[in-house]
Amino acid sequence: MQRQVDIEEAMARSLPLPLAIAIVKDPAGKYNPISVAWAMNTSKEPPMLAISIGRMRYSFEGLEANKQFVVAFPSSTMAGDTVFFGTHSGRDMDKLSYYGTATEPAIRIDGVLLRDAVVNFECEVAGKIDSGDHRIYIGKILLAHVHQDPDVKRLYAIEPDRLGTVKVDEEYSSPRAK
């Protein structure tokens, strides 16, 4: 049975959410990471994904100017990086250098990959849609990279103020698959 609640309570109950870190070259030429919970695949052919960035965020300026970005899905070892990138502004500091996050150069775009991430996607902006106080950037994936260790786990927002991995408790198969 459902009960009506305010939207904030319902959003909090929609967890866990996969986390992502978008890395954008800012107008000053430095690479600026921003943690985002709103990222999704949007197309298989061509491969595309979308991220949603608030208009007041410093990364918004970089995306508007450079039209390229990396989307990294952080590993469970990157909880500190992810929180830091989501709570500090690139207007005030070089977040990658300050936090000491390991990077490697991107290949197809002017960007960096996060070395410890599970996956990194190099993207170019293929479209954008205004959505209230955010703008959704649709990125065409130009190149994909995965962590060399297949056992590295992704990081999720498990509940408010709690990050972790998601463990599958049991196998599930659809009754129709039998």
Structural description of this entry:
The chain has a single domain, classed as Electron Transport, Fmn-binding Protein, Chain A (Pnp Oxidase, Chain A). Helices cover 17% and strands 40% of the residues. It has helices spanning 7-13, 58-66, 79-87, 95-99, and strands at 17-18, 20-25, 31-36, 39-43, 48-54, 68-73, 103-105, 112-114, 119-131, 134-146, 156-159, 162-164. The longest helix has 9 residues, at 58-66.
Any descriptors?
40% strand; seven-stranded antiparallel β-sheet; 178 residues; alpha+beta; three-stranded antiparallel β-sheet; Pnp Oxidase, Chain A; 12 strands
CATH class: Mainly Beta
What is the CATH topology classification name? Pnp Oxidase, Chain A
* Percentage of residues assigned to helices: 10-25%
DSSP E strands, number: 12
The CATH superfamily title:
Electron Transport, Fmn-binding Protein, Chain A
| Overall average residue pLDDT | 91
Short recap of the structure:
By secondary structure, the protein is of the alpha+beta class.
Question: What's the structural blueprint in terms of helices and strands?
Answer:
Blueprint: H1 7-13, E1 17-18, E2 20-25, E3 31-36, E4 39-43, E5 48-54, H2 58-66, E6 68-73, H3 79-87, H4 95-99, E7 103-105, E8 112-114, E9 119-131, E10 134-146, E11 156-159, E12 162-164
Antiparallel strand pairs: 1-11, 2-3, 2-6, 4-5, 5-10, 6-9, 7-8, 9-10, 11-12
